[in-house]
Amino acid sequence: MPCYEIDGLKPVIHPTAFVHPDAVLIGDVIVGPRCYVAPLASLRGDFGRIVLEEGSNIQDTCVMHGFPGTDTVIEVDGHVGHGAVLHGCRVGRNALIGMNAVIMDNASIGESSIVAACAFVKAGMEIPAGKLVAGMPAKIMRDLSEQEMNWKVDGTRCYQDLTVRSLATLKPCEPLTEMEAGRKRFEFEGVVPLIDAKKGS
C-alpha cells in the first residue's frame, strides 16, 4: 500500500486493521485495531497527527489533514462516509459523518451524533452527544431517535466485519469476460438504508 514517511515519521497500522492498497498514508498517521480504511482515502500526516481509534472506519475518497500542532481524530467506532473531509477536528466515539460532509478545524462532533450528508461544520463548532446535524452551514436539528442510533451502530459493525473479510479474502484478480450463471449476491440480513429501516418500523 502507498505508505510514506516524511521527516522520519512513518505511519503506524495495527495488524488487525485493514488499509486498502489504494489508500494513501503519509507521515504521522496512527491506525488502531479493527479499523477500515477504504480505497482512495488520503490520510496526510505531514503537518498534524491523524488518528483512527479502534473500530473506526473512513471510506472511499475521504481526506484527513490538519494544521501543525493539531490532531485530527476519529474516536472509537467512529464512522466516516464516502467523500467526507476532516480537517483538524475530532469525531466523537460512535459518531457518524455523512457522505461529502466537511468538518473544519477545532470542530468537535459529540458521541453518537450524526452529521448529515453534505453538511458543512464550521471551525470551532461543538456538537453535543446524540444530535442530528445538517445544513450549510451545519445546525443542530434535533436529538437522534433510538432507532437512528441503533442503525448507526449496525452500520459500523458491518464495516468492522468488512475489515475481517478484507484481511481474509480481498486480493487482486483478473475480471471475468461475462457474468457466470447463478452468480451469487452478497446478502446481509437487516442491513438497509435508514429510510427503508424507518418504513419497516
Percent of residues in β-strands: 25-35%
Unreliable residue stretches: none
Name the CATH class: Mainly Beta
CATH-derived architecture: 3 Solenoid
Distance between the termini: 42 Å
Our Rg estimate from Cα atoms comes to 17 Å
CATH superfamily: Hexapeptide repeat proteins
Task: Please give the domain count.
Answer: 1
Mean pLDDT: 96
Q: Any idea of the CATH topology?
A: UDP N-Acetylglucosamine Acyltransferase, domain 1
Largest sheet: 12 strands, parallel
Query: What structural class results from the helix and strand content?
Result: alpha/beta
Helices, by number, come to 2
Query: What is the N-to-C succession of helices and strands?
Result: EEEEEEEEEEEEEEEEEEEEHH
How many individual β-strands?
Answer: 20
Amount of helix? 10-25%
Shape: globular
Organism: Parazoarcus communis
InterPro entries: Hexapep, PaaY, Transf_Hexapept/Carb_Anhydrase, Trimer_LpxA-like_sf
Protein name: Phenylacetic acid degradation protein PaaY
